[in-house]
Amino acid sequence: MHERQGLSLADPADYPEHLLGLQRDDGFLEVRFERHGRTRPVHLAHRAPCRMLFPRQEPDEPLLGVFITTSGGMASGDVLRVAVEAGRGATATVTSQAAEKIYPSLGAPSRLSLGLRVEAGAALEWLPQETILFNNARLERRVELDVAPGGSLLALDMVVFGRLARGERFSAGALHDVWRVRRGGRLTWADALSLSGDIAAQLAAPAGFGGATSAGLVLLVADDAAAWVDEARARLARGSSRAGVTLVGGALVARALGAEPAHVRRDLTALVSWLRAARSGHPARMPRFWSI
């Protein structure tokens, strides 16, 4: 697990959440998959509100772990740390039970740290449902991915800017999002996004998000990533989102922006479903929890 350092200039004791004596979550989840005849979790540790469940495995699917936050989302001042490892030869998929909600903040940020590690000969799919930023939410997130040569990681991420069904937009608050990809411990791709201040103007700017209400990312970190770039571009070009695909440091990076989150979700899940089938022989679909 890699924890975030130095993001907040304010002393946590000065935040209203602390002064009001509000209870904050400080949870974690650690899971390691190994193959012993078949893939199974050999280490699982968690502290509320984090949990992982393992529903019955379907015959044509890899082992499925479902990440749950029993609190229903993250409030200001909450800290969650998630670490997932796939040992040599293991094949596993991790998804989430539902969209992750980031609630409005009185001042303190919600902090989420995610570390994914894949060893040689292992394949891990990280396919959580979207993160919804309520207006006035403040989220600091750090994602650390380390994939050994010979290993494979397929990851999906979606962020929705506001509770759109309620007519709410994410126009105030903050998002600080940092991603790091390493191959065998060597940094090969780094990315960061910071939104604060007049967020509405930044999301509306033609040179920024161009009016998008949702942004999505698909990452394929694998030895054969370059072989799938051209077809991935062609498939996203037929979708409804503004999208692009590139190869960075040996990783396929696909991004999509859309005025309708449903369009981004549809385009990126179609891409992920195709990659699952074409590369690994899995069914060309998302984990069944995406349909619940």
Describe the structure in brief.
With 292 residues, the protein is mainly β.
Written overview of the protein:
The protein has 292 residues and is mostly beta strands. It has a domain at 12-206. The chain has 4 helices and 17 strands. The protein has helices at 16-19, 199-204, 229-237, 261-280; strands at 26-36, 38-47, 50-53, 63-69, 79-86, 91-96, 100-102, 110-118, 123-127, 131-133, 138-147, 152-161, 174-183, 186-195, 214-222, 242-248, 251-258. The strands form 2 sheets. Strands 3, 4, 6, 7, 9, 10, 12, 15, 16 and 17 form a 10-stranded mixed β-sheet that branches. The longest helix is centred in the C-terminal third of the chain and has 20 residues, at 261-280. The radius of gyration is 19 Å and the shape is globular. The two termini are 30 Å apart. 43% of the residues are buried.
